[in-house]
Amino acid sequence: MKSSSFSSIEKRGLTIGVKIISMLIAIIFLCMLILAYFVNSYSKNILLAEATKLLQNASKRSANLIQGYIRESFTVLNFSQANIQNWLDDDLGQTDMFEIIIEQNTFNMLDKINSASFGYIYLKNANFVKKAMHKIGNDALFLVYDSTPNAPGGTELLAPSNEIINLEGLQKTLQTQKIEIATPKKFTLSGKNIYGFSLNAPLFDKNKNIIGVIGVIMDVEFLTKDLRGDRLSVFKDDYRTLYDSNGFRIMHPNRDFESKTLKEINPNPTSDILLQMAKNKQDGVIQHLNYAERLFYVGVSSFDIWNDLDIRWAVTVNAPEDSILESTIKLRNYILIGILITIIVITLIISWLIRTSITQPLQKIQVFLMEFFSFLNYKSTQAPKPLLLKSKDELGIMAQAINHNIEKTQKALEQDTLIVEEVVEVVQDANAGKFGRIITQDSLNPQINKLKNSLNEMSQTLYNL
Question: Residue 7: its pLDDT value, please?
Fold first, then answer.
C-alpha cells in the first residue's frame, strides 16, 4: 500500500535522469554548433581566398586570349601594310601588277586573321587603278568578305561601298595618319549584318603624304567565341564579359547589353569600380551586384590593345557567390546532418547509461524507502525486503547503508513492541492489585528505557506499601 505522501511525490516534474540527459545533450549540441560554425567559417574563408586567386587567373587567361587575337590581327595588318607600302615607296603603284598585288594582299590578310569578316584597302585619287569593280568615284576600294573567319577559304571580292569609306576608324586614320581602332558597333556592310570594329593602318606615298588606309573589320562574335562558351568556365553559372576603359560593353552573354555602357546596364556603384579598374590598369577581384541584384565575385584583368594605342580593354569573369560557396554549403549541411546523427547516438547511449546506472537504482531506492516509511508509520504491517543493488558505485554503497540502518531500525521497532507488550501486562496486573512485576525487555531508544525504569520503580514502590 502506498501512502498519500508517496502519491504526492509521484506528481513531480522531470526526473533526475531526464534533467541530466537534457543538460548533457544541450551542452553537446551547443559545443557542436560552435565547432560547426568555426569549421564552416574557416572553410568559407579558405574557399573564398582560393576562389579569388582562381577568378584572377581566369580573367588574366581570358584577357591574354583576347589580347593575343587582336595583336595577332594587328601583326598581320602591319605586315600587309608594310608590303603595300614597299610598292608605294618604290613607285611601283603605277604598274599593272599593283592591282593584282593589292587584291592578293587583301585576300591573304583577311584569310590569316581568324576573327575578321572584312578586309579592305582604300586609296584616294587612285587614277592608276583601272578595274571599274574597284573604283568608287576617283578613289579605289578593294573589299573582301570572309564568310568563314575561323577557317581557311570562304573569301570573296565585293563591290566598293561608301559604308566602308565612312567607317569611323578609317576616317580617323586619314586624319591622324596613325594606326587606329574603332569603337565596336552593330552595322550593315554590303547587305551583311555585323557587330564589330575596324583596325586601320595608314598608307603613304613616297613623299609621306597619306593616300589611303588598309584595314580589317573584326567580328566580335568570332573574336569572343571562347568567352561565350564553357571552355573557360571555372564555376557553375559563371560568365565572362568584355568592356573598354570608357565603360562600353563590348561583349556580354546577354546580347541586349552589348553596345551599352556599364552604368546603363547596372547603375550599382560597383560598376564605377569596374570602370576605374580598366582606366587605371588595375587587376583584381571585387564583389559586384549585377543587374538582377545577385551577388557576384568578379575577376578583372585589363590589357592594352596595341603598344602604339592608348586604348585599354578589360575582361571580367563573373562567378555567383552561391556557386563559389556551393561546396561550403554542402559541407555545412553534412556537418549539421552529422551533428544530428551524433546527438541521436549520444542521446541513446547516455540515456541507457543514466537509466541503468542512476535512474533505475534511484527508483528502487525510492520505492524501497516509501515502503519502509509506510511500515514505519504503521500503514503497512510487513517490513520491505532488503534493497538489492548490484552496482558498486555511490548508489550501491548508499543502498548497503540504507539496508543496514533499516535493519537496525526494524529490530528496534520489534524490541519496542516487546516492551510495550510487557508494559501492557504490568498495567493489567496493577489493575488487578498485583504489584512488584518489572519490565525485563530493553529498547535501543534511551527515552523508552527511561520510561521502562520509571515504571519498574513505580511498580516496586507500590509493591512495598
Answer: 45
DSSP, collapsed to helix, strand or coil, labels residue 149 as coil
Check residue 383 and report its DSSP letter.
P
Distance CA 262, CA 352 (A): 65
Asked whether 144 and 164 are in contact (CB, 8 A), the reply is no
SS3 readout for 71-97 = HHHHHHHHHHHHHHHHHHHCCCCCCCH
Task: Tell me the per-residue pLDDT of 167-199, one tens digit each, with 9 for 90 and over.
Answer: 999 999 999 999 999 989 888 887 888 899 999
The answer to whether the CB of 90 falls within 8 A of the CB of 116 is no
HSE toward the beta carbon, residue 335, CA cutoff 13 A: 19
Tell me the C-alpha distance between 123 and 213, whole Å: 7
Contact between 274 and 243 (Cβ < 8 Å): yes
Q: Which residues contact 226 (CB under 8 A, 6 or more apart)?
A: 62, 65, 232
CA–CA gap between residue 264 and residue 267 (Å, rounded):
6
Distance between CA 158 and CA 273 in Å, rounded?
Answer: 44
Distances (CA, A) of 227 to 43, 191, 231, 340: 30, 27, 8, 44
Residue linked to cell 524501497? 368
Quick one: DSSP state of residue 133?
G
> Which regions of 229-365 does DSSP assign to beta strands (E)?
239-244, 249-251, 284-289, 295-304, 312-320
Residue 454 in grid coordinates: 520509571
Cell numbers placing 452 = 521502562
State CA 263 to chain mean position distance: 28
Q: Is 379 helix (H, G, I), strand (E, B) or coil?
A: coil
* CA trace torsion 15, 18, 23, 27 (10° rounding): 170
Report the sign of the C-alpha dihedral through residues 363, 364, 367, 368, in that order: negative
CA 382 to chain centre: 71
Rounded to whole angstroms, the Cα distance separating 415 from 445 reads 9
* DSSP label at residue 51: H
User: What are the φ/ψ torsions at residue 214 (nearest 5 degrees)?
Assistant: -110, 135
- Which alpha helices (H) appear in 432-444, and where do they start and end? none
Instruction: Enter the C-alpha cell of residue 70.
Output: 587582336
Q: 13-22, 110-119, 127-136 — which is least confidently predicted?
A: 13-22
The predicted model gives 397-415 an average pLDDT of 78
Residue 419 CB coordination number (10 Å): 20
Residue in 15, 11, 198, 14 with CA at minimum distance from that of residue 115: 198
C-beta separation of 197 from 184 below 8 A: yes
Instruction: Report d(CA 387, CA 99) in Å as an integer.
Output: 122
- Residue 339 contacts by C-beta under 8 Å, 6 or more apart in sequence? 29, 32, 33, 36
